[in-house]
User: What shape does this take?
Amino acid sequence: MFARKADDNLASFAKRIDDLVAKNVDKEAKGTVVLLGKKDDFSSKLETIAKDKKIEQVPLTVSVDGEKGPKQYQVNKNVNFTVVVYNKDKVVTASLAFDKLDAKQQDEALAAFAKVLGVDPPKSSGDSKKEDTKKDDTKKDSTKKDPD
Assistant: This one.
């Protein structure tokens, strides 16, 4: 993944990638987050993200190619986030460009990654909230008494 800014959404996505990689080490899953810009602008932010989110599997780096990024990837200069997914044969299976990286875009990118791994996509934070609501509803229903 290539990013032009390091914000809370990037931190969240980096953690979600890290979790997916950690769960699929046996499938040789790998991920990298590359910031496009000057090292001085991003280094401390990336260190903070890695420490706060406890990211262990996915390197957080700054491109030596600056804002343009590696030439061979032809990163779109008009978007903030580009996710490139490729299979074990290094064939690109998805290239996704996002201006923002909210939960919906994160889910889309992680689904493309999971598909290559042959696993179910991780649940979004929105899905877990829905499940919690269902659990709460079930608890409420189970405490109701029959009107006999």
